[in-house]
Amino acid sequence: MTGRASFVCLAVALAAGAPARAQDAPTFRSSTEVVRVDVLATVDGRPVRGLGPGDFEVTDSGVAQVVDLVSFEQLPLNVVLAFDLSESVSGERLAHLTAASRAVLARLERSDQVALVSFSHVVAPGAGLTTDASTIARALEDAVPGGETSLVDATYAALLVGESDVGRSLVIVFSDGVDTASWLQAERVLDIAKRTDAVVYSVAVRSVAVSPFLREMAEQTGGRQFRVDSTRDLGAAFEGILDEFRRRYVIGFTPRGVPAGGWHPLVVRIKGQRATTRARPGYLAGGG
Amino acid sequence: MALVVPVVAGAQGTAPLAADDAVAWCEAIADHIPGEPDTALFVAASWPSLRIERMLGALTDGMKRVARPAARDDDATARLREALAPFGLAHEALSSGDLTRIVRRGAVLHTDIALLTDGNRDLGGGVPSPGSAASVTIFDGQPAGYRRGGGHLDVARMLLDRIRPSASIDPGVWAWYRAVAAHLMAHAEFGELRKHLAHGKRVVPRDGVLLMFDAAMHHALASPRVQAAMTTIVMPPTFSLDVKSSRAELDEARRGYEDALRLDPGLVEARLRLGRVRAEQGHPAEAADLLRSAARDAGDPVGQYFAALFLGEQEAALGRADEARLAFERASALFPNAQSPLLGLSHLARARGDRAAALEAIARVMRLPSRRDARDEPWWDFNTSAGRHADAWLADARRRLAGDAAQ
């Protein structure tokens, strides 16, 4: 019943983000006043470029809002890799996961940060946010899979790591199973996700049962769930996620005419185009 | 006394006589040091229960012959007389074929075979044959193989049933049922535990501890560890899993804990676990009352930890953030390398909008040792931890059964 997991932890303090980067903070960031939403706008699967604030139609709780800010490919990313390193991810699967991660790390911009949260039943961040991708690569090389799966706990930790410094937060969760050992309850972590700006993409192998939590997490944060036939396909999936995330707009608006707290359903459309949009379905206000 | 040679087949290739088995068995019992994996264990390790039942019949007959004057002994009776000598049986016991003293120690022998040497029940990649008793092994929410059912605990129960005047009033039997239940719980042997408790509740029907284990078993079957595997296990033909939905198992657990507490209101473990069930069923106020009471009375650090951890979650659900934080901090102080109270603290802070405190708690998780054995996190073993006193209880049960018999 009891498994063993042991891997080298190359953790750095989460709060210690790169100071130089903080000085280059983007022009806006979510606060209690400004709501920030990541939006993917596509036509026939191709991203729509060149949109400005006036091109977006946003309703918050059914009330039309004025989009103040739009950013496209301008903000640095906080990419958090939350990887299941339980017993079932050993041998060839780990090799595939490591190779796929390298491919993602190679595509990061110099201003992007990346972190690793590895988990079995043990949530053991392999490295806090850093611009040094080699730290993540080394942590993965040192990983020894084993034990059970604390998927919900780890996803929560990843959300917090992602918002621990300025930037757009992308959380990529890979798991090949369902949660068996978490302390935190899935619905409570989903509530936190509704309060953050993070976008969660999940990746799972098609042949295994996929956690409903991951599907819900992707939906609620405006991300997407990827299914791969085999761990050999992880590289393509991770690269696809990163590319898609980069092609998303970040829009900001100051809510007007809506209640201060509670759940705020959001609808984001592109004016005058038959574009499809993907964005979080709403946000929880109050509580930060 | 010389150790008995294993009896699998006679020198001529014939099946061993039951009378020979009786001698070999009595010698093994007498030679066995309770709780030790000694060579005596291997004498009867491969005997099926039918062979033991047949042997017991021969032993009863042999005891009556031994009750007669030794001068009339044939060779077989003389050997049995020698084998029975360590038990110090009174003439009345011999002449009536009262097996009580022998079966008490025999139960210890077969318990030790089951718990110390019975590792050959794994079927590897194979599947159980139709009609046989079996259980499935689960790891990380996935089926990991099958185990044969049955074995020497069945034999031990059958032996204890032969205690006179009644197993039900024998404190050693009560202790044995509790101890074996604790062991099976601690090792997540839920298939065997179900069978053990079904028999145990007939023998000692008003024991709150056994009812508590029964409830804890249903509680464990409701857990994600088990329920996750329900969707992936493909059972062989004619087999089905004896596990209900999470909701149904939780209901059974609640009823079981309540029954246990009616019989024994002082059972802190049952109160703690009932509190957890009520929390899982969405009754935070009731859960918090039970958990506060359990937190006051829990006698060991693991019990105190669970009470504080679970209470923290319920206080948070009731909007009592300060009380929740104190409870999580108390749990963290008890097990500083456990991640769950820190995750609880972080979540509590984040839900209130205090990102800095939430992040600080996560940073504390980051600073914990990454190896599981260094983490010392009771939560991961909650489903089996009702049996955490199994070793001490087994030692006590062995002492009661084997020690009393030797007096």
Number of helices of chain B: 19
Q: What summary fits the major beta sheet of chain B?
A: 2 strands, antiparallel
What is the CA–CA distance across the termini of chain A? 39 Å
Number of spatially distinct domains of chain A? 2
Q: State the CATH superfamily name of the largest domain in chain A.
A: von Willebrand factor, type A domain
List the helices and strands and how they pair.
The complex is a heterodimer of chains A (288) and B (407).
Chain A: H1 19-23, E1 35-43, E2 46-47, E3 56-60, E4 63-65, E5 67-72, E6 77-84, H2 92-106, E7 113-119, E8 123-130, H3 133-141, H4 151-162, E9 168-174, H5 186-193, E10 199-205, H6 212-221, E11 225-228, H7 234-246, E12 249-253, E13 262-270, E14 276-278, E15 282-285
Parallel strand pairs in A: 6-7, 6-9, 9-10, 10-11
Antiparallel strand pairs in A: 1-2, 1-12, 1-14, 3-4, 3-13, 5-12, 7-8, 13-15
Helix pairs in contact in A: 2-3, 2-7, 4-5, 5-6
Chain B: H1 18-31, H2 49-66, H3 75-84, H4 91-96, H5 100-117, E1 134-139, E2 142-148, H6 152-160, H7 171-186, H8 190-203, H9 208-221, H10 224-230, H11 246-263, H12 268-280, H13 284-297, H14 301-317, H15 321-334, H16 340-351, H17 355-366, H18 372-375, H19 390-406
Antiparallel strand pairs in B: 1-2
Textual characterization of the structure:
The complex is a heterodimer of chains A (288) and B (407). Chain A has 288 residues and is of the alpha/beta class. Chain A folds into 2 domains: 30-73 and 249-285; 77-246, Rossmann fold. Chain A is 25% helix and 30% strand. In chain A, the strands form 3 sheets. Chain A has a 6-stranded mixed beta sheet, sandwiched between helices. In chain A, strands 1, 2, 5, 12 and 14 form a 5-stranded antiparallel beta sheet that branches. A 4-stranded antiparallel beta sheet of chain A has the order 4-3-13-15, with no helix packed on it. In chain A, strand 10 (199-205), helix 6 and strand 11 (225-228) form a beta-alpha-beta unit. In chain A, helix 5 (186-193) runs parallel beside helix 6 (212-221). The longest helix of chain A has 15 residues, at 92-106. Chain A is globular and about 55 Å long. Chain A starts with 18 loop residues before the first helix and ends with a strand. Residues 1-31 of chain A have low confidence and may be disordered. Chain B is mostly helical and 407 residues long. Chain B has 3 domains: 18-98, no CATH class; 120-234 and 243-263 and 387-402, no CATH class; 266-383, Alpha Horseshoe (Serine Threonine Protein Phosphatase 5, Tetratricopeptide repeat), CATH 1.25.40. Chain B is built from 19 helices and 2 strands. In chain B, helix 7 runs antiparallel to helix 19 (390-406). The two termini of chain B are 19 Å apart. The interface between A and B is large, with 52 and 44 residues.
